[in-house]
């Protein structure tokens, strides 16, 4: 009986507080930062790839210009 | 082998436009905006909405794909019209590569939309059949896929450029009608159509806009960057190898 009362009151607390249960959980044990880190690493990797393509093209263009 | 008609552009406008492709400042700006989007977008407080809950963050990641696609196609349309007015083939190259870049974002937006819809609405609706906006987006993408087929079917450069420029004008209008006009007239689960309230109702304190607008600009600049690389490759192939790659 006592246990069920605790569960009910915990649920009402989250409804009244108006914040997300899942958000609090991810944020409270710091795990959301892992997700952010993963995504930023992927993003930076793709951007570095773009930059390298850009540089290669620039070098190719310069070489062709000089060879003319 | 017939000589290609492409001439290296020598007029001021084209040269100035081509110079912009090499500049760094707008690329750095795009990178900053993208990193901002993906960090702040995941950490910011979002209002707790029924059914959507945390997935309303997709407003920062899925919706800007479509906005960026429309913006890129708009720029492509401008260059198509420039080509029709001046006849310079470089503008046709720019228009084609912008559409290529826009299609990448469109396909990504479509796939992420299918995934999101699968979790929120159930599988059958999100695939293609029951939602007007998804159907409209599929039609729009197919219209632009047909643009590439059209280009592949014509050999002569100038003719190909003219016909595809005219086609892209119609395609842009139809895309906007299919994605933006018709869905708002019908009932659908998509936010903003039928009887649903759009996201602005949830975004009470404009908090979400702080990430949404930079996300749109960031994706747009990324699309421009990809298009600029494709244009440079295409130009090199024309000049150096006299080869037409499309």
Treating each run of at least 4 consecutive H or I residues as one helix, how many helices of chain B?
10
Shape of chain A: rod-shaped
Q: What is the terminal separation of chain B in angstroms?
A: 17 Å
Strand content of chain B: under 5%
**Helical content band of chain B:** over 70%
Individual helix count of chain A? 3
Q: Describe the global form of chain B.
A: globular
Helix/sheet category of chain B: mainly alpha
Helix content of chain A: over 70%
Mean pLDDT, all residues of chain A:
71
Count of extended strands of chain B:
0
Mean model confidence by pLDDT of chain B: 85
Sequence of secondary-structure elements of chain A: HHH
Helix/strand/pairing category of chain A: mainly alpha
The rounded distance between the terminal residues' Cα atoms of chain A is 89 Å
Compute the number of strand runs of chain A. Answer: 0
> Which pair has the most extensive contact?
A-B, 22 and 22 residues
């Amino acid at each position: 009986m006592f246990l069920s009362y605790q569960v009910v009151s915990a649920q009402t607390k989250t409804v009244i507080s108006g914040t997300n249960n899942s958000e609090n959980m991810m944020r409270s044990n710091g795990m959301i930062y892992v997700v952010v880190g993963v995504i930023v690493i992927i993003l930076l990797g793709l951007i570095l790839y773009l930059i390298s393509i850009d540089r290669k093209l620039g070098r190719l263009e310069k070489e062709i210009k000089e060879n003319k | 082998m017939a000589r290609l008609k492409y001439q290296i552009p020598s007029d001021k406008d084209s040269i100035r436009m081509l110079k912009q492709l090499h500049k760094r400042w707008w690329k750095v700006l795009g990178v900053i905006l993208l990193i901002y989007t993906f960090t702040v977008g995941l950490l910011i407080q979002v209002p707790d909405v029924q059914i959507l809950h945390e997935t309303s963050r997709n407003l920062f990641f899925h919706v800007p794909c479509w906005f960026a696609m429309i913006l890129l196609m708009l720029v492509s349309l401008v260059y198509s019209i420039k080509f029709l007015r001046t006849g310079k083939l470089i503008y046709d190259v720019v228009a084609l590569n912008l559409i290529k870049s826009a299609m990448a974002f469109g396909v990504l937006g479509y796939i992420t939309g299918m995934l999101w819809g699968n979790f929120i609405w159930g599988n059958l609706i999100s695939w293609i059949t029951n939602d007007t906006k998804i159907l409209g987006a599929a039609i729009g993408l197919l219209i632009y896929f047909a643009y590439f087929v059209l280009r592949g079917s014509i050999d002569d450069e100038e003719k190909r450029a003219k016909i595809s420029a005219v086609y892209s004008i119609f395609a842009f209008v139809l895309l906007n009608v299919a994605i933006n006009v018709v869905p708002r007239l019908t009932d659908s689960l998509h936010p903003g159509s039928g009887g649903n309230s759009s996201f602005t109702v949830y975004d009470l304190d404009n908090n979400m806009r702080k990430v949404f607008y930079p996300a749109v600009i960031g994706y747009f600049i990324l699309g421009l960057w990809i298009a600029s690389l494709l244009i440079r490759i295409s130009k090199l192939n024309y000049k150096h190898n006299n080869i037409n790659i499309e």
